[in-house]
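Check out a protein:
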Amino acid sequence: MSRRDQVPFCNIFPKQKISTMVSTRTISLFTGAFTLLNITRTENGAIINDNTGGSHPTGIITYSTNGYVSVLIHATEPEWRPESLNMLDQDERFDSQWALVGKHSGAYSGPFGFDEAAMVDENNGVVLHGPLTAASLPANIGRVQRREFAFSEDEQYLNLVGTLGVGVVDSLWWRRIGRRNVTFA
């Protein structure tokens, strides 16, 4: 039996209270955009190589002030990201190229909240992404992803840790992106 058969990839926590009733300080820490620095996958505590996101994945996670999260992560290896592929390439000749892009990227979005019982303090606790309303993996629609979180002392770095299966854990480090002023012409 595979790990995925033993524990769902993204679990729904039916008895868990999902709440946005946390301190305004915690909400302000999350609000904004972060760029992906690193993903480390471990199995039973040992680092394992996983080529899903490649050796140097890139990505962005955005938490909005109205309680939504959006995540996009993809590999940067040229062999997995055909430069000539574009949205007009929809016929069967391009299926293998689209498969590479899809296999080595992931995205999802939906509301976010917190597990009140797991909050350590304003900078550490558990954030819940979901129930997801959009996801590149259809099986993730409607599911909740539980992520332990910790902000660095200077609050510029965010560590999100999630369990993928029995003994398999991803630790993602993100750096806050400076706020931008947007003007309209």
Observations:
- The helical segments are 3-6, 24-30, 95-103.
- Residues 3-176 form a domain with the Lipocalin fold (CATH 2.40.128.120).
